[in-house]
Design brief:
single chain, 493 residues, mainly alpha, two-stranded antiparallel ribbon, 2 strands, 68% helix, globular, disordered N terminus
């Protein structure tokens, strides 16, 4: 064979091999994958802080996902040899999930089923409305799908973890770190917000101090947020329910990483045992001072499932710890006592409000039981003791009744199917693997993956129990965090 003298060659195993230069497109793709991984870690950093930043991050991440997928498909198609019997288009179609980095994504199909159910619900509502039409049905259906934009975080994050594996541990460590800081802030938050608001409203008369306060006012307004009437801790967020839901998930993961030894696979200081102990303690503090009773109940069931999945001894110890933490919180944290006592006196307005809203929600379901009233069409229901800033409620304060009322039996069945798929998959992946014959690093990785599965099994249970008393499935921060965390799992441990 003739070879040009300028062709690069190398000697390997006694034979001469040609070294083709790396195509520029591959260099671009490699750089994009690295940037995609770094962006995901940055996204994890902002997750317990700002919903606005998260939407921006999600938009950029989605763009990266589409771009990396398109370049990967182009590169794969270009590498397919010419074959008269098998077209490149057919190969690209057959291998799309693998090329796009979504091969083995266990929850992709259940999410698509729920999306289709929402589309069907909206289509039916749009067609059956007065002056309805097929076009209106499509419009209502696709507008309903737009409310599920948080789902896009799952395929994007899953692809990123496949393309940039370093992000799998760094994103988890970053999320736990910021969540811990948010939880540490929760106990002092009401006093800090009150102090900053007083500074903003009554700046000091001293000239230097006055200008310092003026310059810091935009930051203080951002920190205090639009609501300062909550006595409950909200961390770096504005709503206690968002904070409590997010911290439930992080607590289950932090506990699982500690109890299963998976923390050793985390980078830098997060692989230390003392840090693995400190993180769940901090998050427990946040949940206590968050003072969301539904979150307390969800956390209780989540911890029981988590510890029971590991061993009976750990389960018994966890029950003892729960009793001790509960007793100390009731005795020494005033907000805990204030939230519990009304349950025994029958003077809790939020309980009577929930009964009223649940009754109205079920009546809505009875009117349109098959496809519901449309996911965007839950009405404003005016009841006594509703949200003080709005005077009405626009959700059912219950995941299951809300989905029944808005998407009917069709959407509810799809929702239950999605939950069943998540429970069965996480339960299967949470089984202990064989560590014999593995190196220390490989054993740590196996423990890490099992910890994620157990943590998400318990986290799903915690949210499902909390969802009996609140609509956490519709809370932006909670849903984004949940589907982001589900992307850490693949079909095989």
């Amino acid at each position: 064979m003739n070879r040009h003298l300028s062709d690069p060659i190398s000697v390997s195993g006694g034979s001469i091999q040609s070294l083709s230069p790396t195509p520029p497109s591959r260099n671009v793709l490699t750089g994009l994958k690295l940037f995609q991984g770094c962006w995901l870690v940055f996204f994890a950093f902002w997750m317990p802080i700002s919903i606005t930043a998260l939407w921006i991050g999600l938009g950029v991440g989605t763009g990266l996902w589409i771009l990396v997928s398109a370049l990967s498909i182009k590169e794969s198609v270009a590498a397919v040899p010419e074959n008269e019997n098998l077209s490149k288009f057919y190969l690209a179609k057959e291998r799309f999930l693998s090329i796009a980095g979504l091969s083995g994504a266990p929850f992709l199909f259940p999410l698509l089923v729920f999306i289709l159910a929402v589309l069907a619900s909206g289509f039916y509502i749009g067609c059956s409305d007065p002056y309805g039409s097929v076009m209106k049905g499509l419009w209502v259906g696709f507008r309903g799908i737009a409310t599920l934009q948080t789902f896009i975080v799952y395929p994007w994050a899953y692809q990123t973890f496949n393309r940039a594996p370093f992000a799998r541990t760094w994103a988890m460590a970053t999320l736990l770190a910021v969540g811990s800081l948010s939880s540490f802030y929760a106990p002092i938050e009401p006093y800090a917000k009150l102090f900053m608001r007083q500074l903003i409203d009554n700046p000091p008369t001293d000239l230097t101090s006055h200008w310092l306060v003026v310059l810091a006012t935009p930051l203080m307004k951002w920190i205090t947020g639009s609501r300062v009437d909550f006595l409950q801790g909200t961390g770096f967020l504005e709503q206690p329910m968002s904070f409590a839901g997010q911290m439930q998930l992080l607590l289950m993961l932090a506990l699982a990483l500690f109890l299963c030894g998976g923390y050793k696979a985390l980078p830098a200081i997060f692989s230390k045992r003392w840090m693995a102990v400190l993180v769940p303690i901090a998050i427990i503090l946040g949940i206590v001072f968050g003072a969301e009773r539904s979150a307390w109940l969800g956390t209780f069931f989540g911890v029981i499932i988590l510890c029971g999945s590991i061993s009976r001894k750990i389960l018994l110890r966890s029950l003892l710890c729960i009793v001790v933490v509960g007793a100390l919180s009731y005795a020494f944290v005033p907000i805990v006592k204030d939230r519990i006592n009304p349950l025994f006196t029958g003077e809790d307005a939020s309980v009577t409000t929930r009964f009223e809203i649940w009754k109205r929600s079920f009546e809505l379901f009875q009117k349109k039981p098959i496809f519901g009233n449309g996911i965007r069409r839950f009405p404003h229901i005016y009841v006594n003791s509703a949200m003080p800033d709005k005077g009405f409620l626009d959700h059912a304060h219950n995941n299951y009744l809300h989905i029944l009322a808005t998407t009917g039996i069709v959407g509810f069945a799809a929702y239950l199917y999605m939950l069943a798929a998540i429970f069965t998959t996480t339960a299967k992946l949470s089984r202990s693997g064989v560590l014999e014959g593995l190196s220390e690093k490989e054993a740590d990785q196996l423990k890490y993956k099992r910890s994620l599965a157990i943590g998400l099994l318990a986290g799903t249970a915690a949210l499902c129990v909390s969802g009996l008393f609140e609509y956490n499935f519709g809370t932006g921060h909670v849903r984004l965090t949940y589907f982001f965390l589900l992307a850490f799992l693949s079909r095989k441990i």
